[in-house]
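The protein record quoted for completeness.
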Amino acid sequence: MRSLFLVMLSLSGAGRLLALQSKEKPPASYSITLPPEPDFSAVDWLVGEWRGKTAGKDPQGEVRLTAAYDLGRRFMILREDVALPPTKTAPATRESWMAILEPRPSGQGFAMRAYSSTGFITRYDVAVKGGEIYFNQEGGEQPPPGWLFRRLLERVNDTEFSETVRVAPPDKPFFDYYTARLTRVMARKEAPAGSPPQTPERPPQPNAQPHK
């Protein structure tokens, strides 16, 4: 009987000791290593609002493009509205698109995913050479079937750049879709971390067709 009492006393003391130790044990802490801050210095000049008209055709089309940082400057949001007049081979065209631009993890160049008011979703490889930014289509979740698009932005100065869009129909070579000259119309404005770009939404514009 005495032996049983000693065993029960021993177990009771061990339980109190474990409870005391559990109260004194510091809480576990976890941390997630964040990716390095992105470097947008090569394309920083693009931030702001730009407007312009197409060149080489009469009547002229209108182009509006905005670029702004978002989510703590980890991404750049691009938005563009394009209105092109009718030609002999194509009706008038209106299209809006937005895109998310981010540096590649390798640090070499950028990647961009674009969402169009036509419903297409395309990915682009983006390369910078001096004051020139090259956008080359490389697939996407829902790209235009068989069509390829390229875009070139050429910086002229702090308040002006040119934009050339080239298109290749299925099994056909590239041709110039349009070229536009854009000028800065709004001073750059930094977006607070976590806030959406200060750019008004445009309603979807169907009937986007390349002009020949």
In short: The first helix runs from residue 2 to 24. Residues 89 and 159 are 34 Å apart (CA to CA). The helical segments are 2-24. DSSP finds one helix and ten strands in the chain.
